[in-house]
Amino acid sequence: MGIELTCVCEKCGYEFEADVGVGFLYPKVYVETIDAMKEGRFGQQGKEFLEAFPNGAISCENIVVQCNDCKKLMVVPELSLYVPKEGYDFTKSNRKKRWSSGFSGNDYEYVSPIELNDHYQLFEEYDHRCLYCNGHTSVVPGFTECMDKSIDKRVSCPECGSMIEINFTGIWD
Known about the structure:
By secondary structure, this protein is an alpha+beta fold. Helix content is 17%, strand content 29%. It contains three helices and eleven strands, in the order ββααββββαβββββ.
């Protein structure tokens, strides 16, 4: 289940809405994303990773990034690249397990977020590029389902530069 977050700039009126996290179609999205990476549709980084590590895994939950150059906000799949932890035998895992009551996922071979956490280690964070100017981006930590009070729940407005609050507005699936 994912969450919906929004922000509105009180100074200039800029609005942004993001569905972050993962929904009930995660197994289908995972397989489609892996296939797109293998074909190079997300650039060479993912394609080369999956060629070098055929048993590698990815994180495909939605996140928000902000361009370091033009400052635009974008919702993108995370795409961090993972390799199995030493000693983990992925062939013994049930990669066609039930995902949810709304969507079984039985016909898809995928690595769940829980499996990523338990049995895989981060190999490399994905280098997201801006969809507008091709500049480098940074993940906006405040656009997260984590309710940790230490995470700054503000972001710089892409239009005027003032700081705007990120607010929880709902749950999606």
